[in-house]
Design a protein that fits this description.
This protein is α/β, with parallel strands linked by helices and 240 residues long. The chain has a domain of 149 residues: Beta-carbonic Anhydrase, Chain A, CATH 3.40.1050. Helices cover 49% and strands 13% of the residues. Strands 2-1-3-4-5 form a five-stranded mixed β-sheet, sandwiched between helices. The protein is globular, with a radius of gyration of 22 Å.
Protein backbone atom coordinates (compact mmCIF):
# COMPACT_ATOMS: atom_id res chain seq x y z
CA UNK A 1 0.00 0.00 0.00
CA UNK A 2 2.86 2.36 0.89
CA UNK A 3 4.51 1.64 -2.46
CA UNK A 4 1.25 2.32 -4.30
CA UNK A 5 0.81 5.59 -2.42
CA UNK A 6 4.37 6.62 -3.23
CA UNK A 7 3.90 5.84 -6.92
CA UNK A 8 0.60 7.70 -6.98
CA UNK A 9 2.17 10.73 -5.36
CA UNK A 10 5.12 10.70 -7.76
CA UNK A 11 2.89 10.30 -10.82
CA UNK A 12 0.68 13.18 -9.75
CA UNK A 13 3.61 15.55 -9.46
CA UNK A 14 5.09 14.35 -12.72
CA UNK A 15 1.75 14.67 -14.52
CA UNK A 16 1.31 18.21 -13.24
CA UNK A 17 4.77 19.25 -14.33
CA UNK A 18 4.34 17.54 -17.68
CA UNK A 19 1.01 19.28 -18.25
CA UNK A 20 2.58 22.67 -17.60
CA UNK A 21 5.47 21.97 -19.98
CA UNK A 22 3.12 20.65 -22.67
CA UNK A 23 0.89 23.70 -22.43
CA UNK A 24 3.90 25.98 -22.79
CA UNK A 25 5.39 24.04 -25.70
CA UNK A 26 2.17 23.59 -27.66
CA UNK A 27 0.63 20.35 -28.98
CA UNK A 28 2.94 17.35 -29.20
CA UNK A 29 3.88 16.05 -32.63
CA UNK A 30 3.75 12.28 -33.03
CA UNK A 31 6.74 10.67 -34.73
CA UNK A 32 7.25 7.04 -35.72
CA UNK A 33 9.48 4.84 -33.63
CA UNK A 34 13.17 4.82 -34.65
CA UNK A 35 12.90 1.15 -35.71
CA UNK A 36 9.98 1.81 -38.08
CA UNK A 37 10.84 1.65 -41.75
CA UNK A 38 9.09 3.62 -44.46
CA UNK A 39 5.77 2.09 -45.45
CA UNK A 40 6.16 0.00 -48.63
CA UNK A 41 4.29 1.81 -51.39
CA UNK A 42 4.18 -0.90 -54.06
CA UNK A 43 3.15 -4.56 -54.23
CA UNK A 44 6.77 -5.65 -54.69
CA UNK A 45 8.09 -3.58 -51.79
CA UNK A 46 5.32 -4.87 -49.50
CA UNK A 47 5.95 -8.45 -50.61
CA UNK A 48 9.70 -8.08 -50.07
CA UNK A 49 9.11 -6.67 -46.57
CA UNK A 50 6.99 -9.68 -45.63
CA UNK A 51 9.42 -12.23 -47.03
CA UNK A 52 12.37 -10.56 -45.29
CA UNK A 53 10.41 -10.83 -42.06
CA UNK A 54 9.80 -14.52 -42.66
CA UNK A 55 13.52 -15.03 -43.23
CA UNK A 56 14.19 -13.49 -39.83
CA UNK A 57 11.57 -15.82 -38.34
CA UNK A 58 13.35 -18.79 -39.88
CA UNK A 59 16.77 -17.66 -38.68
CA UNK A 60 15.61 -16.69 -35.19
CA UNK A 61 16.87 -13.13 -35.75
CA UNK A 62 13.63 -11.28 -35.09
CA UNK A 63 13.68 -7.49 -34.98
CA UNK A 64 10.17 -7.12 -33.52
CA UNK A 65 9.66 -3.88 -35.49
CA UNK A 66 6.86 -1.42 -34.77
CA UNK A 67 6.10 -2.82 -31.31
CA UNK A 68 7.31 -0.15 -28.88
CA UNK A 69 5.24 2.47 -27.01
CA UNK A 70 6.24 5.15 -29.48
CA UNK A 71 4.82 3.10 -32.35
CA UNK A 72 1.62 2.53 -30.36
CA UNK A 73 1.20 6.27 -29.92
CA UNK A 74 2.03 6.93 -33.58
CA UNK A 75 -0.74 4.66 -34.93
CA UNK A 76 -3.32 5.43 -32.24
CA UNK A 77 -5.20 8.01 -34.33
CA UNK A 78 -4.93 6.37 -37.74
CA UNK A 79 -3.47 3.37 -39.53
CA UNK A 80 -1.88 2.72 -42.90
CA UNK A 81 -1.01 -1.01 -43.15
CA UNK A 82 1.08 -2.19 -46.08
CA UNK A 83 -0.43 -5.68 -46.32
CA UNK A 84 -3.59 -7.75 -45.93
CA UNK A 85 -3.26 -11.33 -44.68
CA UNK A 86 -6.09 -13.83 -44.95
CA UNK A 87 -5.10 -16.89 -42.96
CA UNK A 88 -6.45 -19.75 -40.88
CA UNK A 89 -7.48 -19.53 -37.22
CA UNK A 90 -4.84 -22.14 -36.35
CA UNK A 91 -2.98 -21.08 -33.19
CA UNK A 92 0.34 -22.08 -34.75
CA UNK A 93 0.06 -19.63 -37.63
CA UNK A 94 0.11 -16.05 -36.27
CA UNK A 95 0.86 -13.78 -39.27
CA UNK A 96 2.34 -10.90 -37.27
CA UNK A 97 4.92 -13.26 -35.76
CA UNK A 98 5.89 -15.37 -38.76
CA UNK A 99 6.36 -12.23 -40.87
CA UNK A 100 8.02 -10.35 -37.98
CA UNK A 101 5.75 -7.30 -38.18
CA UNK A 102 4.15 -5.04 -35.59
CA UNK A 103 1.42 -2.54 -34.78
CA UNK A 104 -0.19 -0.91 -37.78
CA UNK A 105 1.64 -3.05 -40.35
CA UNK A 106 -1.02 -5.56 -41.39
CA UNK A 107 -4.74 -6.05 -41.74
CA UNK A 108 -5.29 -9.65 -40.60
CA UNK A 109 -8.35 -11.81 -41.19
CA UNK A 110 -8.42 -15.36 -39.81
CA UNK A 111 -11.12 -17.92 -40.55
CA UNK A 112 -11.25 -21.70 -40.42
CA UNK A 113 -9.36 -22.90 -43.50
CA UNK A 114 -9.10 -19.24 -44.61
CA UNK A 115 -12.60 -19.60 -46.05
CA UNK A 116 -14.11 -16.44 -47.52
CA UNK A 117 -17.73 -15.34 -47.56
CA UNK A 118 -19.13 -11.85 -48.35
CA UNK A 119 -18.30 -10.35 -44.95
CA UNK A 120 -14.76 -11.74 -45.04
CA UNK A 121 -14.30 -10.61 -48.63
CA UNK A 122 -15.41 -7.13 -47.61
CA UNK A 123 -12.84 -7.17 -44.82
CA UNK A 124 -10.13 -8.17 -47.29
CA UNK A 125 -11.21 -5.38 -49.66
CA UNK A 126 -11.13 -2.74 -46.92
CA UNK A 127 -7.39 -1.96 -47.01
CA UNK A 128 -6.92 -1.81 -50.80
CA UNK A 129 -10.12 0.15 -51.37
CA UNK A 130 -9.84 2.67 -48.51
CA UNK A 131 -6.13 3.19 -47.95
CA UNK A 132 -4.34 1.80 -50.98
CA UNK A 133 -2.88 -1.25 -49.25
CA UNK A 134 -0.82 -2.79 -52.11
CA UNK A 135 -0.67 -6.46 -51.12
CA UNK A 136 -3.01 -9.31 -50.18
CA UNK A 137 -1.63 -12.68 -49.09
CA UNK A 138 -3.88 -15.72 -48.79
CA UNK A 139 -1.95 -17.97 -46.44
CA UNK A 140 -2.70 -21.67 -46.11
CA UNK A 141 -0.68 -23.97 -43.91
CA UNK A 142 0.55 -27.50 -43.39
CA UNK A 143 -1.76 -29.93 -41.57
CA UNK A 144 -4.78 -27.62 -41.61
CA UNK A 145 -7.39 -29.18 -39.31
CA UNK A 146 -10.31 -27.45 -41.00
CA UNK A 147 -9.35 -28.72 -44.44
CA UNK A 148 -8.66 -32.22 -43.12
CA UNK A 149 -12.05 -32.38 -41.38
CA UNK A 150 -13.83 -31.15 -44.50
CA UNK A 151 -11.96 -33.59 -46.73
CA UNK A 152 -12.81 -36.58 -44.53
CA UNK A 153 -16.46 -35.53 -44.17
CA UNK A 154 -16.95 -35.17 -47.92
CA UNK A 155 -15.03 -38.36 -48.65
CA UNK A 156 -17.24 -40.29 -46.22
CA UNK A 157 -20.48 -38.56 -47.22
CA UNK A 158 -21.03 -37.05 -43.77
CA UNK A 159 -21.81 -33.61 -42.44
CA UNK A 160 -19.82 -31.71 -39.86
CA UNK A 161 -21.64 -30.45 -36.74
CA UNK A 162 -23.13 -26.98 -36.47
CA UNK A 163 -21.77 -24.22 -38.65
CA UNK A 164 -18.64 -26.21 -39.38
CA UNK A 165 -20.63 -27.63 -42.27
CA UNK A 166 -20.61 -24.17 -43.87
CA UNK A 167 -16.81 -24.27 -43.88
CA UNK A 168 -16.90 -27.71 -45.43
CA UNK A 169 -19.23 -26.58 -48.22
CA UNK A 170 -17.01 -23.58 -48.97
CA UNK A 171 -14.10 -26.01 -49.40
CA UNK A 172 -15.95 -28.31 -51.79
CA UNK A 173 -14.38 -26.91 -55.00
CA UNK A 174 -10.92 -27.58 -53.57
CA UNK A 175 -11.98 -31.06 -52.48
CA UNK A 176 -13.27 -31.94 -55.94
CA UNK A 177 -10.06 -30.66 -57.57
CA UNK A 178 -7.91 -32.59 -55.08
CA UNK A 179 -9.82 -35.82 -55.76
CA UNK A 180 -9.33 -35.34 -59.49
CA UNK A 181 -5.62 -34.67 -58.97
CA UNK A 182 -5.15 -38.00 -57.15
CA UNK A 183 -2.22 -36.68 -55.11
CA UNK A 184 -0.31 -38.88 -52.69
CA UNK A 185 -1.37 -36.55 -49.86
CA UNK A 186 -4.87 -35.40 -50.86
CA UNK A 187 -5.37 -33.20 -47.79
CA UNK A 188 -2.18 -31.24 -48.44
CA UNK A 189 -3.12 -30.98 -52.10
CA UNK A 190 -6.54 -29.67 -51.08
CA UNK A 191 -4.94 -27.03 -48.84
CA UNK A 192 -2.76 -25.75 -51.68
CA UNK A 193 -5.57 -25.87 -54.23
CA UNK A 194 -7.92 -23.96 -51.94
CA UNK A 195 -5.37 -21.20 -51.33
CA UNK A 196 -4.81 -20.83 -55.07
CA UNK A 197 -8.54 -20.81 -55.79
CA UNK A 198 -9.18 -18.20 -53.10
CA UNK A 199 -6.44 -15.88 -54.30
CA UNK A 200 -7.60 -16.26 -57.90
CA UNK A 201 -11.12 -15.34 -56.83
CA UNK A 202 -9.89 -12.22 -55.05
CA UNK A 203 -7.67 -11.30 -57.99
CA UNK A 204 -10.70 -11.35 -60.31
CA UNK A 205 -13.03 -9.72 -57.77
CA UNK A 206 -14.86 -6.83 -59.47
CA UNK A 207 -13.65 -4.34 -56.86
CA UNK A 208 -10.04 -5.54 -56.70
CA UNK A 209 -9.44 -6.54 -60.34
CA UNK A 210 -8.98 -2.93 -61.56
CA UNK A 211 -6.29 -2.36 -58.93
CA UNK A 212 -4.55 -5.58 -59.92
CA UNK A 213 -4.71 -4.64 -63.60
CA UNK A 214 -3.13 -1.24 -62.91
CA UNK A 215 -0.34 -2.84 -60.91
CA UNK A 216 -1.38 -1.14 -57.69
CA UNK A 217 -2.27 -4.43 -55.97
CA UNK A 218 -0.92 -7.97 -55.92
CA UNK A 219 -2.81 -10.99 -54.57
CA UNK A 220 -0.46 -13.77 -53.53
CA UNK A 221 -1.24 -17.34 -52.52
CA UNK A 222 1.20 -18.89 -50.06
CA UNK A 223 1.70 -21.96 -47.89
CA UNK A 224 3.21 -22.00 -44.41
CA UNK A 225 5.19 -25.00 -43.18
CA UNK A 226 4.58 -25.78 -39.53
CA UNK A 227 7.74 -27.89 -39.53
CA UNK A 228 10.18 -25.32 -40.88
CA UNK A 229 8.43 -21.98 -40.37
CA UNK A 230 8.95 -21.07 -44.01
CA UNK A 231 6.38 -19.34 -46.20
CA UNK A 232 6.30 -20.81 -49.71
CA UNK A 233 4.84 -18.62 -52.43
CA UNK A 234 2.47 -20.51 -54.72
CA UNK A 235 1.06 -17.92 -57.14
CA UNK A 236 0.87 -14.20 -57.75
CA UNK A 237 4.27 -13.00 -56.54
CA UNK A 238 4.73 -9.41 -57.80
CA UNK A 239 7.76 -8.40 -59.84
CA UNK A 240 10.13 -5.63 -58.86
Amino acid sequence: MATAALLTGCSSKTDSATTERTAAAGPAVKTPSPAAGARPDSPWAAFARLMEGNERWLDGKLRHPDRDPRRREFVADEQDPFGVILSCIDSRVPPELLFDTGLGDLFVMRTGGQVVEPVVTGSVEYGPLTSGTPLIVVLGHQRCGAVKAAYEAMRDGKELPGNLQAISEALRPAYEAAVEEKAADPVDAMIRIHVKQTSAGLRSNKSLAPLVKKGDLAVVSAYYSLDSGQVEVLTGAPSA
